[in-house]
Structure formats: C-alpha cells, structure tokens
C-alpha cells in the first residue's frame, strides 16, 4: 500500500442557489488532495435538493489495494457570511470497491442542536427563523429523544396544513392532544395553537353554515307539506259544504228527486 500524507482542502462556492450546472472542485485541489468534490445545485433528479459527491480522482491509476480515509462536512452560510448550518462531520474509507460517497438525504445534520435528516434541514431551519424560541426550553439529554420529538413536531405541522373541513372531530381532538404533549416536553408552540384554534373556528363556521342550510331545507319541506295539507283541507271543506247543501235541499224538498253528484 502506498504512503499518503494527510492533506486537507476547502471548496467554496459563492451564490450556490444561482448555479444551474454541475460544479466540480478545481484541478489544483484534485492534485493536492487526490480527491474530487462534485455538487449538483438542482439535485440529482430532485429539483429542491442539493446533491454532494466526494470521490477519489484517477483511482484507476493507484496501486492495488489502495485506501484513503477522509473526514468531510458541509457548511452553508447566509448572505451575511454567517454560518446557517453545518452538517455532522463524517469519516469514510475510500477504496477500489468504494471510490466515492454521496449525501443521499438519509444522513443527519445538526440544526439548532437537533439532529435531523438532510431532507428535513430546510423545514427545521425555517421553524427556528420564524419562531426562534420554539425549542428554547426543549432540553432532553438524549439525541434520539430530541430527534423523535422533532419528527412528531414536523408531522404535526404537516397535519395542520390541511384544509379545516378535511378534519373530523376525532382528528381535531387527537391533534390538540398531540400539541399539548409536545408543549409539555418543552416546545413553545403558541403559533401552532393559534393555527389550530383558527381551524376549529373555520370548521365551526362551516358546520354552522351547513346546519343553517339543512334547517332552511327542512323549513322549505314543511311549507310544501303545509301547502299540500291546505289544498287537501280546502277540498274536504268544499265537499262538506256540498253535502250540507244537499242535506238542506232534501229537507226542504222531500218529494223531489235530486240528481246527486258522483263526487
């Protein structure tokens, strides 16, 4: 196995979000570190993702049984040059069988002290930007517990994005219970409570409007039935009046035959 002195390098990309084409590390860095970084700003088939590949350059020319060990991380800065978030530093072994590694989205990274999937990083970062005190009092010692509760919070946020009328009474009750449970763990979720209250109110308005419509239709049906009964009653009254007149005529003219109406 050939000797290889430890080397390090940093690959910086300005205005990453404006890039369209594949970006590779400069040739000078490749020669210095015998490694290559490649970025695909628009993701590898996924528009809203960033794909990152790290592999050994020209590995076919290396001696049989070669190996390289590399530590690497990914740092994203905002427009002010301040660190927005940094991925967990990974250490991987490169060899002829595995000459490259990629970020698949299943790896975790640290965002605000929470270990989340790369695919969740943007959403979690958005929460802390819009609601910076969300996890201020959320301090479980176990990273696994933190990750579990964060996943529950993300699912709750996704659920509350549904339209109010799509919730059943049971779903609303369960959602409120989930919100209370997460609040008790230390999350400050007043903004989600307000959103849930709005859903309750909108759903109540929809239910009230539906109930009013049902009552109006019921009232309309009753009026229709009443009109039918009035018509029947008028017909019955006319028949009774005719019978009374017939009886009266028979009493006054007992010896004269009358032609009775077939009705």
From TrEMBL:
<dbReference type="InterPro" id="IPR008974">
    <property type="entry name" value="TRAF-like"/>
</dbReference>
<feature type="coiled-coil region">
    <location>
        <begin position="205"/>
        <end position="232"/>
    </location>
</feature>
<keyword id="KW-0175">Coiled coil</keyword>
<dbReference type="InterPro" id="IPR002083">
    <property type="entry name" value="MATH/TRAF_dom"/>
</dbReference>
<feature type="domain" description="MATH">
    <location>
        <begin position="9"/>
        <end position="90"/>
    </location>
</feature>
<dbReference type="Pfam" id="PF22486">
    <property type="entry name" value="MATH_2"/>
</dbReference>
<protein>
    <recommendedName>
        <fullName>MATH domain-containing protein</fullName>
    </recommendedName>
</protein>
<dbReference type="InterPro" id="IPR050804">
    <property type="entry name" value="MCC"/>
</dbReference>
């Amino acid at each position: 196995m050939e000797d290889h002195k430890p080397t390090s390098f940093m690959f910086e990309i300005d205005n990453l979000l404006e890039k369209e084409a594949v970006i590779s590390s400069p040739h000078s860095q490749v020669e210095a570190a015998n490694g290559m970084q490649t970025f695909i700003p628009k993701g590898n088939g996924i528009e809203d993702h960033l794909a990152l590949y790290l592999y050994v350059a020209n590995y076919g020319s290396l001696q049989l049984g070669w190996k390289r060990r590399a530590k690497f991380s990914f740092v994203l800065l905002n427009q002010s040059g301040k660190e927005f978030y940094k991925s967990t530093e990974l250490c991987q072994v490169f060899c002829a069988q595995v000459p490259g590694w990629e970020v698949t989205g299943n790896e975790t990274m640290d965002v605000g002290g929470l270990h989340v999937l790369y695919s969740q990083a943007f959403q979690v970062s958005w929460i802390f930007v819009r609601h910076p005190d969300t996890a201020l009092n959320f301090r479980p010692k176990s990273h696994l517990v933190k990750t579990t509760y964060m996943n529950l919070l993300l699912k709750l946020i996704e659920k509350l994005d549904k339209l109010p009328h799509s919730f059943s009474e049971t779903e609303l009750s369960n959602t409120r219970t989930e919100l209370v449970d997460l609040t008790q763990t230390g999350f400050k979720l007043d903004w989600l409570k307000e959103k849930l209250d709005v859903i309750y109110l909108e759903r109540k308005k929809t239910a009230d409007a539906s109930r009013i419509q049902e009552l109006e239709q019921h009232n309309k049906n009753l009026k229709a039935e009443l009109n039918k009964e009035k018509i029947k009653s008028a017909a019955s009254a006319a028949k009774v009046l005719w019978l009374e007149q017939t009886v009266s005529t028979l009493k006054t003219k007992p010896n004269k035959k009358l032609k009775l109406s077939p009705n």
